[in-house]
Amino acid sequence: MSKKDRAKCPRCLDPIEIEDEVEIGDIVYCLNCDAELEVIKIHPIKLRDLEQFEPVEEISDFRDFYGDDDDLYLDAEE
Q1: What DSSP element (H or E) covers 6?
Q2: CA dihedral defined by 61, 67, 68, 69, rounded to 10 degrees?
Q3: Omega before 44 within 30 of 0, i.e. cis
Q4: Could you tell me if residue 50 is inside a domain?
Q5: What number of other Cβ atoms are within 10 A of residue 54's Cβ?
Q6: pLDDT single digits (tens) 38-57
Q7: Count of CB atoms within 10 A of residue 42's CB?
Q8: Is the residue at 41 inside a domain?
């Protein structure tokens, strides 16, 4: 039988049992709120909510997104 540590879910604060063999970068899930959590520290175990840190999609070209509207740019002479 493997030893289990406990950590708190950063989203709902419920206790989560973590297997002893966990490593930094492993993904665990909260059974209470279904949060996807990354192990970021081992002793003591610390978890990070991956939903809060999802990468924002980059906009390849500002003008493609907003159009070529000159009103978006402030004129220094005004």
Answers
A1: strand 4-8
A2: -130
A3: yes
A4: yes
A5: 9
A6: 999 998 899 999 987 655 55
A7: 13
A8: yes
